[in-house]
Specification:
Elements lengths: L2 H9 L1 H10 L10 E5 L10 H10 L1 E15 L4 E15 L25 H10 L13 E13 L7 E15 L1
Parallel strand pairs: 1-2
Antiparallel strand pairs: 2-3, 3-5, 4-5
């Protein structure tokens, strides 16, 4: 696990709490959002039918370390550093009373509909720390900014399954 991956998942903690406090299911139970380290869990790497039972219990947001690139800078032992963390959000519609996503927000959380949607809330949690994010593994690594790239919402490919992916790209420097 990388420090950057941990940082991304920790930024989502407030969203998990807000979703549970602000949205309920038809049963009256709070909407559940689970954070998953995709480097240690295979739950978000399986096909839709394999995880249907899990998605009936909660929506998921997962993160995985994708890549680290270092390029020499100047005459010292320093490097520019770019780290990519992949994020995946999945959920199942509450229509039929078995998921945690509801486009109207009445019996679950909307997935992607402006500021109230789950995807937008997660992105906002990252954007709020986009300059000088404190995500480095130690004091010799510092990041100047982060960007969200390669955004893909593939929800339209499914009848009752929601999925969005994007990459969090940390740009900074490392003193070697």
């Amino acid at each position: 696990m990388t420090a950057e991956l941990d940082w991304v998942l920790s930024q989502f903690a407030s969203v998990v709490d807000d979703v549970a406090n602000q949205y309920t299911l038809e049963s009256g139970d709070p909407v559940q959002l689970e954070r998953v380290n995709r480097d240690e869990s295979r739950i978000l790497e399986q096909d839709v039918q394999s995880i249907r039972g899990d998605l009936e219990k909660a929506a998921f947001v997962g993160a995985t370390h994708v890549d680290t690139v270092r390029d020499p800078v100047g005459t010292e032992y320093d490097a520019s550093r770019e780290v990519v963390v992949g994020v995946r959000v999945t959920g199942l519609t509450s229509q039929g009373s078995y998921g945690h996503i509801d486009p109207s927000g009445d019996e679950g959380i909307p997935f992607d509909n402006g500021t109230d949607g789950l995807v937008n809330r997660l992105k906002d949690a990252l954007w709020s720390e986009r300059t000088w994010p404190d995500a480095g593994p130690d004091p010799s690594v510092y990041y100047t900014d982060l960007e969200l790239q390669n955004e893909a919402n593939t929800s339209q490919q499914y009848a009752d399954f929601y999925r969005a992916d994007w990459d969090v790209v940390f740009d900074g420097y490392e003193e070697l």
